[in-house]
Amino acid sequence: MGSIAEGAAPAQDLRFCRSADGTRLAWATHGSGPPLVIASCWLSHLQYDWQSPVWRHFLESLGHIATTIRYDERGFGLSDWEVDDFGYESRLRDLETVLDQQPHEQFALMGMSAGAPLAIGYAARHPERVSRLILYAPIGSGCFAKSDDQDAETALLAIIKTGWARKEPIFRRVFTSVLIPDATEEQMSWLDELQRMSTSPENAMASRLARADVDVSGLLSQVRAPTLVLHARDDRAANFAWGRRLSAGIPDARLVCLDSKNHILLGDEPAWPVWLREVTEFLEPERSTHSAAAGNGHAAEALAVSGREEEILGLAAQGLDNAQIAEALVLSVRTVERHLQNVYAKAGVSGRAARTAVVARYLAHH
């Protein structure tokens, strides 16, 4: 059986934060270009995904077209495993927490598999921040490979309980065969092992039970961002009907049907370049805007800031610290910090001198 080996991974900036209930969340960034946030499926590990023949082509390709921001959900990967609450609202607050760490006012958001309901919920709740929405192999209700047959569902839970943590992959292979039925033995072995590395049997069971009650159908009409839905026609883990339903319910959505049986597209199958081309073209307006800003940012004499950013800079120029600015504008300190980080990014400055630099630049033009 293949195993996940240590190896040199492309540079990523790995960090941690804590959600509202104290759960430690791991998140990472890599690549360059406009920001793209990924609400991933439950099966992820920020470190080991880089060595995976199942996931690595996604990470490398996305890093070429965007500054890619990923995180491990609560109970999985490098995030805390000691978790009691896998409910939808807690998971959505986790996503909000990770995004509050980012310096970007707006970003594209990709919801993969069971991450799609989170992406939809966030886009509906924070339309001002999501510039574009991508849903890949989306599950709008329940969990992957959900069965309406209670006996079958009970059997799947028993498989998780009995075989998830065992060294032998025979039980985990049931799920692997659903997720990537056309994979090679090497690819299947890697995904077998990734399941064991990503979480505990208890978390896998609790998460599956919690997701069975999730249904975001009522939120679809509230999504305002242009949306791209990509779904394999014969996906065995997420029925293609969900792709049709979501794309029909979201006002500005387009559905791309992929010719595959795999829930996770493999790098050597014909559907993969189609997926990559569609995503690249969909993000092109973001890439063009980002390139123009990067080209002009350093040459421009005055910073192109929003009204709120100008208010914050004005108060910073008066000598107020972040807490005082937050109090004056009735904002949270974290929101003030996010706006300042966005200004630093626009100015192309970082480090301890960033605040001084942008304040000086602001004063020079006021």
TrEMBL record:
The lineage of its organism: Bacteria, Bacillati, Actinomycetota, Actinomycetes, Micrococcales. Residues 298-363 form the HTH luxR-type domain. This is Alpha/beta fold hydrolase. It comes from Intrasporangium calvum. One of its GO terms (molecular function) is hydrolase activity. The keyword Hydrolase applies. It comes from the Bacteria. InterPro entries: AB_hydrolase (IPR050471), AB_hydrolase_1 (IPR000073), AB_hydrolase_fold (IPR029058), Hydrolase_4 (IPR022742), Sig_transdc_resp-reg_C-effctor (IPR016032), Tscrpt_reg_LuxR_C (IPR000792), WH-like_DNA-bd_sf (IPR036388). Keywords: Hydrolase. It holds the Pfam family GerE.
